[in-house]
Amino acid sequence: MQILRSGVAAACVVVVALAFVATAQTPPIPPGPPPPPTPYPPVITSYAGRLLEVRYFTGPGTGNVIRADFLKVDAARDRLYMRFGRGLAVYRLSTLFERLNDFSGIGGQGERFVPPDLLISVPAAVPEIGDFDWDSRGYLYISYYDPGSQFGGVVIVDSNGVQRGNISGPEVGIRPSAALTIASTSRQYLVVSNAFTVPSRVTLFDVTSPSTPSYLRDLSVPAFNAYARTDDGLIGIIRHPTLPGTMKVFTSDAFVSGGPPTFELTLPASFADIASDGRRFFLLDMGQFRITVVEQVAGIFRTNDFQAFAGGIFFPRINYGENYLTISRGPSLGTQGSIYRVLNGVPTFLEKDYFNRYPGWIMEMVTVRAGNRVLLIIAGNEIADVFVLEDPRAIPTLSGLASIAIVFGLAMVGLASTRAH
Predict the structure, then answer these.
(1) What confidence tens digit (pLDDT) does each residue in 375-410 have?
(2) Does residue 118 contact residue 105 with C-beta atoms inside 8 Å?
(3) Cα–Cα distance, 7 to 12 (Å, whole number)
């Protein structure tokens, strides 16, 4: 395989141009996981194909198996990110549909996969990638835990995957749980949160010059492991699991300067995850198994509660994309996942039973537009599948009957309460 090295830190291998070739020593590949079950629910119009499947081997190195368990989407840059073993895979959304089922990529443990357009590694012997985020300049910030080192780190790469900087040391912490970028008028910042270490810690770095990042100070915001943003610069954070569950909303300026939150919501149970449609926040409440929608209207924050049909104790996830909301529960008891159509902040339940029949643990689901299609991508641990969904733009209720749809949606999901703050 061809290896590219960073001009800034030539000793660190960061990008692997993909040319996966099975060698003569590769043992025979056993049968793979079964295809997704049929029939499909109405919201799924067709099955597009498979992105990854793991065909288990036993013996040394099994812990290195590539799994599908963590997805993020940068639609503005045409990118799907997937944690890829001990690296990070990047796929172009615009060409993903046509490349499905091209299993020319073969891993060392018998994994078969569509070769990523870019595969990013990190400068550690045995890294475990935690969270990652990107800024408006196209730089990617990948936090990782290094079992062979006293502290974790953050590698900074450009849009081509070339390393431009690296942050390590006590200010990063041992096992970073979240990496969040924040921009001001003239500076670019990176926030690193360690929510699961004792003591917990949130630190701020100036990454305006990626090759020379600098630690600025510890922040007074509570440690968090999940966050979401709105288009007007609000940042919502939560920490799971904690009792009681607390969600705080900050402006970008208040976040980096240590100012007070603009809004705070506390419930007896733990919030599991948070997402945003650019205008409002969607919280997954694990105590009541409900979706709490937080929206600012005329300067007043309002919350609406809706029934949720998925949950588990091991970090369930909620994602928004293309007027769809998805919930996945990970390896735990309960509903595997569920999907909702969202109109004006109101999630209408669509389906859950199909996901209970899905072969594998559904670790994460994301919905994204790729060309003229809306895709549902399921990270099912040992498999990753792609489906085509109904296009919300082609549904009459979403374009012309908004007021009727809102009333119908409220009735269907069982509105629990409306609270104004």
Answers:
(1) 999 998 889 999 999 999 988 755 555 444 444 454
(2) no
(3) 10
- The mean per-residue pLDDT over the stretch 160-187 comes to 94
Q: List b or e across 224-238, with b for residues whose CB sees 16 or more CB atoms inside 10 angstroms.
A: bbbbbbbeeebbbbb
Contact (CB, 8 A) for 333 and 342: no
| pLDDT tens column, 90-130 | 999 999 999 999 999 988 777 899 999 999 988 776 678 98
H or E stretch including 253?
helix 252-257
Two tokens, residue 421? 């703050």
One-letter amino acid identity for 419?
A: R
Specify burial of residue 357 (Cβ count, 10 A radius: 0-12, 13-18, 19+). exposed
Q: SS3 for 284?
A: strand
Is pLDDT at 180 greater than 80 in this prediction? yes
Rounded Cα gap, residues 137 and 213, in angstroms = 15
- DSSP structure class, residue 404: H
How far, in Å, are 109, 262, 267 from residue 247 at the CA level?
A: 41, 11, 9
* Token pair recorded at residue 106: 């073969």
Tell the residue number behind the tokens 């004006």, with chain if given.
Answer: 344
CA angle 296, 78, 70 (to 5 degrees): 75
Please list, in sequence order, all residues whose beta carbon lies within 8 angstroms of the beta carbon of residue 60, skipping any fewer than 6 positions away.
Answer: none
Q: What is the mean pLDDT of the chain?
A: 84
Instruction: Note whether 214 and 206 are within 8 A (CB).
Output: yes
Mention every residue, 6+ apart, whose C-beta is less than 8 A from residue 67.
54, 83, 85, 381, 382
Q: Residue 246 forms beta bridges with which residues?
A: 266
Q: What is the pLDDT of residues 182-195, one digit of tens each?
A: 999 999 999 999 99
Say if residue 372's pLDDT is above 50: yes
H-type helices in 339-401, by residue range? 353-356, 396-400
Which token pair is 93?
Answer: 């959304």
3-state secondary structure of 157: strand
